[in-house]
Structure formats: C-alpha cells, structure tokens
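Hi,

I'm pasting everything inline rather than attaching a file, because the server keeps stripping attachments. The sequence lines come first, and each chain or strand is labelled.
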Amino acid sequence: MSQPAWTEDQPIVSIKDVHKSFGDLEVLKGISMDVMKGEVICIIGPSGSGKSTLIRCVNALNDIQSGSIQVEGQEVNDKALDKLELRKKVGMVFQQYNLFPHKTALENIMMAPIKVLKQDKAEVEKRARSLIEKVRLQGKENAYPGELSGGQQQRVAIARSLAMNPDIMLFDEVTAALDPETVKEVLVTIKDLAEDGMTCMLVTHEMGFAKEIADHIYFTDRGVIVEHGPPATFFEQANDPRTQEFLSQIL
Amino acid sequence: MWIKHPIPGIDKPALTKFAVLKPYTAVPAGAADDLLFSRWLVSTPLWAWLVFALALSAWPMASYASSTYTMSDAFQALWRWIPFIVTGGFFFNVVISFFAMLIGTVLGVILGLMQISPLWVIRFPAQVITQVFRNSPWLVLLFIVLLALPYEIEFGDTIIRIPDWMKAVFGLCLPIMANISEVVRGAINSVPSGQWEAAESLAYTRQQTLWQIILPQCFKRMIPPWMNWYAILTMATPLCSLLGVEEIITLSRQAIEAENNKPELLVPFYGFALLIFFAYCYPIARATIALERRFAVKL
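And the predicted assembly:
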C-alpha cells in the first residue's frame, strides 16, 4: 500500500481513534489529535488518564489495539513498521531521565549517533558539545549521571535525545521527579527548544508552563480527550465540568 | 584494579535517588543468597577453625596415647607424604576446578543470555536446562558423565583416551553452567527497565542495547557470585575421588594404606586436606565479600 508522500502542510503527527488496553484495562478509548510541524502541544489530566501511554504509543514503545497513528505520513500501527527508523525521527525524554549511569554526560549524548546512526565521531562530538552548551551544562561534560543533580541529568537526557536530530520530541512528565527549584532550569531548556521550532508533545503537570508554551492544550480523563483548545480559551473558558474540577484543584 | 575512576551509581553512591541508580544485586529472584558460602566462610572467625582443628587432633591423641604408634609418628608420616599429596593430588583438584569453571562459565553465559531471549524457542529450552542442572545432585551428574562418556574415542586409526579427570571436568561444569546461567540472568534482570526503554527510544537494536548498555552495567556485579561459585566448585572436587581420579583424597587414602592403615593417620591426613582447601578457598571468599561490598551501591 503506497502512501502519498508527507508534506509539511499536513499534520506531522496524526492520531485517529486510538484504542489501547493493558489486559482488561482500557486506557485509551478513542483518542484523536493532530500536531502540525513546529507546534507545541501539552497533554494534561489526572493520573491514570492515559497521557503517558498515549505519547509512548507515538514512538511505538507501546503498541495499540486499533486506530491509527501517523508520524510524517508513516503508519505506526503496522506490523511491518521499521521501529528503528521511526525512533530516529522521534526523540523521547522520560520522567526518570534513564541516563546510562556507566557513561559520562558527553558519552551519553554521543553514544547513539555514533553507534546507531554510524556518524563520524569528531563531528558528533562537536555537536554534542554545542548541545551541552545549549542545555547550559558547560563544565559537566565528563561528569557521570550520578554526580549530577536531577535537573542536570534531565537536561543531559534532553541533549541526548536532540543529538539524534529528531523531528519530534516527546516529553513524558519530565519535571515530575524534580525538586521545585530545578524544575525551572529544565522548563527553560524545553522553552528554548520550542522557540527554535521543534515539534514538541509534552505530558505535564506544570499548568503555568503549559499555558505559557503550548500552542494547543489537550485535557484527557479516563482515556478520552475531554476538551482541547489554545491555552487562552482553554484556561479561561473550560466548559466541561471535569476540566473545571481538575483546573480548580490545580490552579 | 580495573577501576580507573569510580563511577557513581556503579562503584560508589550516587547523589540522586532514582531507580536507575538504585543498588542492584545479582541475586536471581527467588534464589537464596548467592554468596551464602563465601559469607559463611568469611564470617567464621579464624579462632573457630583453630579450635576445631585442635579438637580434632586432641580426640585421637587422647584415645591413642597408650599405643606404641604415637601421633608424632603419624605427623612424621604426613610430613613425608605432603609433597606427593600436594603436587600429585591437590594440583589435580585445582586443575579440575579451573577447567570446570572455564567451560561452565562459557556455557553458562551463553545459556544465561538465551534465558532472556524474547524468542520462546530459545528461552524455554535454556530455562529447562538451567533448572535441571541447577537442581541435580552434583554426584549424580558426575556418575552419569562417568558412565555415559566412553573412555576412549576412535578417529579412524587414532585412539584418543579420555582420562578420568577430564570426565570429572565435564561432570562438574554442568552444575556450574546452570548456576552461572542464573547469575547472568539475574544480573541482567536487575538493571532497571528504564535503561532498556531509553535505549529503545534512541533506536538501539536489542543486541546493541544488551551489549552496550545493559551488560557493561551489570558485568562487575556478576564477579562476586561467580567467585563464590568457584569456591564451592573447588570444595566439591573431592567428589571426583569416587570416580577414581587421582586427586587429594584419593592420594591421601593411598598414602594411609602405604603406611599400613594405622587409624592414627586418619586425622592428620584428612585434617591436612581440610586445611589446604581452607587455605585455598578462604582468600577467595574474602576477596568475594570485599568485591561485593565494593560493587554494592550504598545510598
């Protein structure tokens, strides 16, 4: 089945009626959303509403039972999918950083481009050093993850993902495990990234940040998108009682 | 040592407290403490061994005080036989343990990696083999190998004899293989799943993840249980005397026979065997516990 080539005026990520169950527990009950290139979307909602599962489906860390997820026109819900090719386009940052503890910050960033993309070492190192600078970690190149604070580790993790030159970045509650004072440094990094035009999908509990950075906000509850809209209208004029209740508890 | 620069979270405590940096032990789920033997050997104070040895020698001394063949005669006999027992006998125990460990480790690592394969056809047989050999009495395995293996193999005109000690190596490497397999599986499973996911999201293949991300993190942690198994294996090599292998116990028995089977000889000769095994295994047990402490990440 040949697909029409993806062009930039089409959604870079197109999610249609996605259903996902873990055993008997249905966590996604028909989710649809479109993300355009360069857009920043935030997914918010109570715990267990399927936010993380949804973005993990985008880079095929989880598979889905039915529906369609297209990334740059490539169907993800496809047995014949080349997962490695997909993941070269989609970077992901985790709540618990998941840095490789036996490698230094610089090595963490350089490993995948060298080993997976088979790029030239000198060139990768140059890029890695500029990424370290971009996430404001100069001087920490040779520190091991265990020598860095949570916020610093998370910024290395972001740089590690960026080193693969992805088209889309997924952020899965990246500040949820951080101290309040280090949350900001990570958010600033993500904001820089968004301003550079990176397509970002964030799952977050930082409402203020979502309001500031997002082009579009989705509120999920119990596996469905209850409400969505641009931040201005979403926060001011939430219609659904579930959204109102959630926002009243958070804000 | 091979550690150039201690890595936090691996060689020393890390600053943060997240799952990826939690200490992990190479103890397979559900298994008893892997280092039980080394711990027991190390935790026994040295004076306890001295008292034990003294009690052993005091009892026959009292019993045979009136006999004409004195304990000093017995110890003189032992002294004459020591070079023969050590170079001809204990040497073989070390050779057997060395080769059994070598072969057992190679096979065990392969089997352990097979046990974590996503493919059922690879994983299931590996699990069965591991469990069967892990739970069989060593002596039974030794006898099966002794009786099942031919004592010589013919390649056309050339006949290759398989010496008994080589059969003993095959017999002993089987339980070692199974236990090393569990050590490897346990160590790999002890690495947090987030490491697999992070590598996966960076487009690593499963093989790359295993060799570049997972194994380097848990390799050092496999060393203490591995050494522990070596000490256990060495202690088990006297079993080979039942197969007629000329190791320390067989030679001690022959030496006692050559000295007219005096009962006074039993304690000095077998006591000496005990002592030499202790002298060999105690440093290994100490090193095992030291390495284990070193690799355990304290938070």
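The CA atoms of residues 257 and 265 of chain B lie 10 Å apart.

If the labels don't parse on your end, tell me and I'll reformat.
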